[in-house]
Every structure is written in structure tokens, then in C-alpha cells.
Batch of 2 targets.
Target 1
Amino acid sequence: MIPIDEVVNLSRLQFAATAMFHFLFVPLTLGLAWILVIMESVYVMTGSPIYKDMTRFWGKLFGINFAMGIATGITLEFQFGTNWSYYSHYVGDIFGTPLALEGMMAFFLESTFVGLFFFGWDRLSRVQHLFITFLVALGSSLSALWILIANGWMNNPVGAEFNYATMRMELTSIIDVIFNPVAQVKFVHTLSAGYVAASMFVLGISSFYLLRGRDTAFALRSFAIAAGFGLAATLSVIVLGDESGYTAGEVNKVKMAAMEAEWHTEPAPAGITVFGWPNEKEQRTDYAVKIPYVLGLIGTRSVDKQITGIIDLKKEHEVRIRNGMLAYAALTRLKSGDKSPEAIAAFDKLKNDLGFGLLLKKYTPAVVDATSEQIAMAVNDTFPKIAPMFWSFRLMVALGILFLFIFSTSFYFLIRKKLAQQRWLLRLAMYSIPLPWVAIELGWLLAEYGRQPWTISGILPTHLSASTLQPSSLYFSLAGFLLFYSFLFVIEMILMVKYARRGPSSLHTGKYHWEILEKIQSNTAVKNTDRDPKLVIEGKTP
């Protein structure tokens, strides 16, 4: 007999590994595309060739990252059919629509215009090429939109209902799915996080050049764009993070209570725990340091609504599990052939709790006859482990505060024209390049681990969603994915470091420094001749 728990855990581990690897590349694609639009827009408006070189240089790093993102994203979607076949069968009518649209955006819009971006410089006018760059950025965002609509539906399954005749979820309103509030908040929050990552990437590499005194004109302009864009993006992440907290408080109370280690329902408005040590065994937070009212304001947007605590939520879940047992019994009656109005009405009355009844399938095949002990175990399963949620959220927030400090300080010293003296800030920006990715991965840990034990919140438990596979096959495929993705990651790092070290001067043959070019262009004698400043630098004219 196949060990179901092992299959489910291995399938989850494989999906988590491939998803987190894939999302090493996605944020930079989302953010750097719009930074390229900004740089090329300045080039089109001013005609200054340095901005063209900025677009081409950062575009080269964008291209390397984009290729890796496509390679890792394809295998991710195929896993729904290979590792999660029952999930695909159960919700394919709903989940397949945004996935198909995402594929069209990624491969027909985004990928096509990426080719024109790289090979169209000498074939298109400035305005035409800028429009292509804009379409690349738009395609990246739309691709993210559809995949996040699909993910948002898994967290808040609106616009669909269960059909007992087909034993599947069926779409009732595509509008509800698209405009799902969870999906919309996820989309704008994910985009803003990508903007922060790309801004830190450009800021850090520009700082590297400034610390070494090379390509300083290029680096200063890139630094300025990254600082301004990054500051705006970080403020957006903070605002949208607050909105995400409100959405979680309204839609996913379990996730809110878990990441705040909110054991008891406190009088409104609840305080937020800045620091503490979650004690899951005793159901309390040791050494808690709280700020009054903040959690209530974030989670409810009011001073009189309560944040339901973990203990009270578990009591609610026990009621829903017992109702789910009755719903399962009513469904069994329908499946046996009794389609009487009474049987249908009995099921319709309790069908919203059917998913909670299915949690008992982990412990007994006879859901209707589950014991009190089995019900208690299912109740405990309705919450993820508290400590990973609690600490992931706080580390993510701490990193957000650090990013706000880096971008705001960078922007301040730029406008005061004192950046050159702040070598500590340049070093901090350079060493902080990987930190946005850490924050983003922590955010996804909160979103996906916080949804457990559900594949589709409140409807389909994770342990029922997996395919019937042999553990040996999963071990083999997991090892293969890890090796292949690690190889791709190493290649990405080698190429990124290689071209970043070469710098913008590598775009031109010969010795080409923007500082010299600017001096030549500002020289009246040279301005009044037909000589090309680039050729003067390279020694190809008298």
C-alpha cells in the first residue's frame, strides 16, 4: 500500500522547492522591466545616449534573468497534472482558465516582445522601441496577474460551487474570480515587492561602480532612478502590506491569528505583538511585548471589531467539522441515487462545511463515524505551526524597514549632492542586494504555509489533492529538480556577476568612459566640429 502521508509531503516539498526557485527570478523580471521603461523614456525625451546605454546594459541583465525565469516556470505549472492530479480534476474548470491566460501572456506577449527589445534597436525608431519595452513590462505584469488570480482563488474560492452530480467544483462567475479581493491585493503587493527587488539590484550594482570610481556618470544616473523608484515601491509595499493584513483579517482569520500568535480573542481593538516567543504547547506567547490597538486597526479597520483568537477559531472549526460530517452523509445519500428534494435540501444546507468534514479522511475512511479523538486531531490540523508564521512575518517587516531606510537615505544624500562621501551607505546598498529576495520568499511562506491544511481554503484538504504516485518516483524527480535548478541558479549568478563586473563600458569597443565623453560634449570646439566624440575617445579621428 502506498504511504499517502509520504506522497503528500514529498509532493508538497517538490512544489515548494520549484516554486521558491522560480520566484528567485520573477521579482527581478517584474521590477527591472519598468525601470527599463523609465530609462528609455528619458532617452527618448532627451536624446542623451547615456540613457540608451543604461537601457541596453540593464536590459542585458534583465534578459539573462528572464530566460532563467521562463525555464523554471514551465515545469512548475506541469506539476498540477503530475503531482496534484486530483486537485486538477476537482477544480480544473476554475483554475485552468487563469493558467491558460497566464501562458498566453508569458509566451505570446512577453516573450515575443523581449526578442524585439534586444534585436530592434537598429530596426525601430526611438518611440517604437520604447513602445516595445513598455509591452515587455506590461506582458510581465499581466502574466503575474493571471497566476496570482489563480493563487488568490485558492485562498478565497469565490465564483464557484460544488456540483454533487459531477463531484467537482464548477465555475459560476468568472468576474468574481478575476476581481477576487485576495487576488487583487496579492497582485499589487507582489508587483511592488518586485519593484523593490529590482531597485535594490540596480542600486547595489551602481554602488559597486561608485565605490570603485568607475563609470560614475552612468552609475549616478542609475542610482538616482533606483533610489526614487525603490523609495516609492517600498512605501507601496508597506501600504499594501497593511491592506493585505486587512484582507487576511476579513477572509483568512486563521492566517492572521497564526502569524500574530493571537491565542485569545482580546477586547477590541487588539494590540500587536512586536516581540515574543510563541509557546504552542501552553497556547500562549512568552515574553510578549505589545503595542496597543495596532492589530485591531490593521485587521478590522475599526476600533470595535475583534480579532478572533486561535482557541476560539478552533472551537468554530470543530462545529464546522461536525457539520461537515453531516454534509458528507447527505452527499453519500445523493450518490446512492436518492435525488429527492429532501435529500438535496439536506446537502445544500450543509455543503459549505463539506471540506471540513473531508479533513477527517486523513484519520478514517468512515467520515460519518469519526470519533471525538479523530475530530480533535482534525481540529488541530486546521492551523499551521505558529512559530514559523510568527517569525517569518516579523523578519519580513524588519527587512521592509531596512529597505525604507536605505532608499530614503540614498534619495536624501542624492538631492543634497553628498552621496560620494557616504561610502558606508554605498556598501550597505551593495551588500543588501539579496535581502529583498529573502523578504519575498518569507512572504510566500506566510501565504502558502499559512493556508495549510488546505489546497483550496475550506474546500479541499491538501492530503486529498495529491496524485497516486510511488515515493521512489517523487524522490527521484525531487533530486532531479534540485540538481537542475541549482545548476541554472549557478549559471545565472556566473552570468550576472560577469556582465555586472564588465559594466556599461562593455557595450562599446575600445576604451569608452562617459566622464570623458561628457567633457568632450561640453567642449565648444568639439561641439562646432563634425567629429564624433566617441571616435575622439577611441582615437579614430585626429
Note: The chain has 21 helices and six strands.
Target 2
Amino acid sequence: MGTVAELVRRQWGDHRTGLRDERTTLTHHQVAAGAAARAALLTELMPDRPGSEPHLGLLLDNTPEYPLWLGAAALAGAAAAGINPTRRGAELARDIRHTGCRVLVTQRAHLPLLDGLPLPGLRVLVTDTDAYAALLAPYATATPDDAFLRPARPDSRLLLYFTSGSTGAPKAAVCSQGRLAAAGASLVSHFGVTPDDTHYICMPMFHGNAVIADWAPALAAGAGIALRARFSASRFLPDVRHFGATYFTYVGRAVQYLLATPESPDDRDHRLRLGFGTEAGAVDAARFEARFGARLVEGYGSSEGGAAIQRTAGTPAGAIGRAAPGDDLAVVDPETRRECPPARFSPTGVLLNADEAVGELVNRGRSPFEGYWRNPDADAARLRAGWYWTGDLFYRDADGFLYFAGRTDDRLRVDSENLAAAMIENILARWDRAAGVAVYAIPDPVSGDQVMAALALRPGAAFDPTAFAAFLEAQSDLGTKMSPTYVRVMPELPLTATNKIHRVALRRVGLTTPDPLWWRPAPTAPYEPLTPESRERVRRRYERQNRPFPGQLPPPRG
């Protein structure tokens, strides 16, 4: 197994274009030289000493400094922690302290985030300043072999990247040089990445998706890299054309935002051939390919590296694929640990036995999971009884193909039937007026859950309750318990920093939202607006059952 440091060194002497953004163009050789200069600076700023880890934090947008410092960490034998700039105050300080950062690399735009935070002993470098340029200048002639804190080995810690969970403090997953290099090489092989490709990185680099699935394969193949500081749907196609991008990655709702941009006759005028990511959904993936002429490949790999699914020839529509080589994946009942029965489908593809077929995906084989940084409780939750538990819901067909059904915390229980939010979302996403869909559970007034949906509509569209009800009635795979009781119409869906739907925020607001809210007083009733008067009647139903009202709307005064 190789190292990322070796891949960075391999760029030395390669004078093809290697890294670009709106303002900067660097050759591969200049990228290697820039990483070497920063590695040499690191050896001065945080010399190795007992009891202190060589960790640096990167509080940066997707600027050229980000991959340069990743390369520097690899050469120096240090580890880089991606710090999320959407975090604030005590949470931001906690992330920096938890990962043991001794140096923090940031930019002037993010300096206000650090004001007043208790970060004793932290050395802060501000990249877009004269002081930073002067600090780097003495190391301009450094080579990739000039300086290191610790020897770079395959098992050397390289990344500490926070998982995007929105309940409790995020956990910092560990990724070694060997695992990252192997992940890059695997994607190069799987997608046929060549040195002539250009990888467009528009997802945030503090998240594992952009680094593992976009930067690493480009580095492994010797491909070029183009950066967008922050994802922009309106700038996507102009960037793809300007940089000649051929590959990009996405997570969460990014694809829906791209589809919501105005159509143009030149939508296919580009070199883009492939997008790789998660959570686009089969409907929007097909819409993307039909409009832009580029294929989207839905993949699956837990952020922590504990399980991976690969799409192969013959993968059915809607399936992710089969287990990657070396993984022994199973769909199990988390309570009994018994393997769930295979999925059964109707002639039209409707899943007939969701209640028994959907379970948690586990890896029973040797897992590449390398743990969380100083979080043994989280490690123990992932590794139980010798298995790696993904926390994700799946079902498997008789041929072994795996289908994503949602997160374990996105499961709903309606009238004693278990449902997966992602499965309902995939159906609602077919409505031609919907630009984005989120499905989540709210407490039922008596027991279990009710289905609530948040809809962001396409430009110019309005919510028509009769048309929506007719659409639901026409969906042959929408089970009788899946129809939303409540529909919240929003200008846009709330997202986490990694463009995933922020369901915790949606559940927290519940029925107290100021957005237009529609409901069905009975399962077969038409949708009607939830007025203040009807909302108060609903609240009293919860109160009589001593159940929490979704959003905890306080009782009226007087």
C-alpha cells in the first residue's frame, strides 16, 4: 500500500496544469513545490515532541491553499483536520480543541469566527495576507524530501474529518495515508480516470466526500483539479466549461439545485462525463443525464470507510450495487442480528415486504474503519460483536443487489409499520413541481409517528393540493401508510454544511413553522391549509394524550 506523500512527490517535474481556481493556475510541479514549502514551515512551527500530536486545522474555503496544505501534511507526516466554517462559538472552539490542532490555517473572511474563542497556544496563519507570504518565503526552494515531522507510512494518520451528524457533537473520523491513497486508486480504476481528466471540486473540502472521492483520485491519476470556493448552482456550468471539467462529486441536494437552474439550449456544451456521489435519487439522476448529457453514478461508502458498495454492469435501476471486494455486507435486523429476507417486488417494481426486508447494513468482514479520534464510545457503537454497523437502512434483492432505504434515525413507524424516509422521498421527487423533497417523522398524537414532508417547489410553481393528492394516488409504489399527513411548502430546504437535508432542524420546528402548511385531517381527506384554529385543535389532541406537540408550540395565553 502506498502513501499520499508518494503521490505528492510524483508531481515534481510535471509541468502540466495541475490546480486552478478563478484567480490562480499552478502546474503539478508548482503544487508539489508549494506543498514542500508548507511542509518545511510545519517542521518549524510544531516540532515533534512527546505527548503532542502534529495536527493542524484547515478553516478554509475551497481555495488552492486547501490542497496545498493537505499535500504538506502528507509530506510532513502530520494530520489535517477539516474545520467546518458553518460552526460557531463554543462548537467551533470544541472542534479545534478536540482534534488537538496546534496550528490553524485560515483566511481573512473566517477570522471573525475566532474572535473571543478560548484557544490557548494555537498558532493562526491567515493565508491571504502579506505576513503569510513573508512567512512562507524562506522555504520557497524546499523539495518534497527536505523536511518532515514523522516518516510518512501507510498507517500514518493524515485526515481528521468530522462526520456530518446533526445530533450531538460531530465525531472526527481518522483516515490514514494508505487508506486515502488506496481509495483514490480504486476510483481511478473504477471510473477510468486519466491524466487528461480535470476534477471539479465544488463540495466543501472539510468534508470527506470532496477529499476522498474527488481530490484523491485526481492525485492518484495525475489529473488536473479545478476549485470552486463554495458550491454555486449558477456557476456550475460556466465553471465546467471554463476549466474543461470532466468529473465532479456531489452530496445531498446539490443535484436538485442544479436541476432548478433555468434550462438552456447549450446545457450539453461541455466536457463533463461523470458525476459521483450520494442522495441524488434515481429520478433526478435520470433528469440530470437527460438534460446535461453526463452520467451520475450513485455510490455508497460510509464516511468512516467501514463499508463500500460498487455499481457494476447489470445493476438494476434504483439499486446502488453490490459489496466491494473484501466486504461481507449483510442487511440485518439490529435487534435480533438475523439477516433480513430478500426483497420481493411486484411486476411494476413495488417493494412488497419493506417491513421485513429493510434492515441495517453491516460489514461482517474485515473493516477498513480506522476509528474516531479520541472517542472510544463512538468506536464501540460502530464496532459491535465483531461487525461494523453503518447506521444506514438497506434492503437486498434475491441477486444480492443492495438498495438504500435511509438512515436508521430516518425510520418512521406508522400504524405499527416501519417506513424509510428515503423511500418516500424518492417517490415524492417524481412530482414535476418539486425541486426538493424531505420526509421526516413527527410524533403521532396517540402513538408512533406521522409522515411529514417539506417541499421546495420549482421556479414559478405553486402548491396545488388537488394536483398533489392526484399525483400521490397515481403512484403505484406509494404504500397506504406512506402518504404525508402534513406538507410544509418552503422556498428552499434547510441544509447542513455538506448539502445534506437538515432533518433535525425540520423536526425541531415541526408544526410551528410560519411556512405554508397543508394537512389531511383524515387519511382519505383532501389536503387543506393548517390554520391557527385547526393547529390549536391538533395541539389539544396531543395534550389530551400527554404527547409532545411537534415543535412544542406553547399554549395560547389568556
Note: The first strand starts at residue 17 and ends at 20.
